[in-house]
Specification:
By secondary structure, the chain is of the alpha/beta class. It is built from twelve helices and eleven strands. Strand 6 and strand 7 (about 100) form a beta hairpin. It starts with a strand and ends with a helix. It holds the Pfam family Aldo_ket_red. Keywords: Oxidoreductase. It comes from Nocardioides pini.
Length: about 290
Amino acid sequence: MQTRTLGQHKVGAIGLGLMTFDQTGTQPRQQLIDTVSAALDAGVTLFDTADAYGPGDEKGAGAQGENERLIASILDELGARDRVVLATKGGHVRTEGGGWDTDSSAAHLREAVDASLQRLGVEQIALWQHHRPDPKVPYDEVIGTLKEIADSGKVAHVGLSNADPQQIRDAHAVLGDALASVQNQFSPKFRSSRPEIDVCEELGLAFLPWSPLGGLSDAKELADKHPAFAEIAQERGVSAQQVALAWELAQSPVVIPIPGAKRPSSITDSAAAAEIELTADELARLDAS
């Protein structure tokens, strides 16, 4: 697989998003192990999760940190720790009733880093990302906390998620080389993050599109909703999902899509997109679709 730069790391051009990675009834542990193994075999080396990801009960309890514990245990079982860059996020919290909230207070973000270190079983987190802006905390205060976290040595690099161009620039001005990435939504359906990609390219930051196929339902309907992707896929004898990921990779050399996958076949299909080189004519058709 092609490689791209994420801070001090070289990673595969396609990563694996672990938001829906859980061992509930339809996704037994062995299936998860097989999916991670398939990802590794396909050259996927960036694994992205968050302390807010994971299954919870009807009150939302028990979810915080579950996916971190799960992926750490699977990597240990496979003896694959040294083969991956393991990224996580903090600042997004689960609430009773299965809802979501933000907490970017300095105290919470410091506690979140320490808790993720323990759950992941590492001495330093390769990439720790601020999950999303918190309307209760001014962003410049958040940046100051991120600087403190970066200087602590508990994380190798800091990332932002759901940040706008000015927030990225402000954070880079304070964090410098400690800032490695931005993770925003980007897909055939959601293209308004183009300005953030441009800023990342200018500043030398990796851009990690979340939901690069539009989410689980849209990924399945990609061919119907975006005919140009289906047409080019048919012409090339590949999946429309592969064409979508190849199109995203062609946006900029800093783009590293992180599609989710519950089955080995899904991540194998996604990883193969890194070997597709779309022509200028194909890109124009996709851009116009």
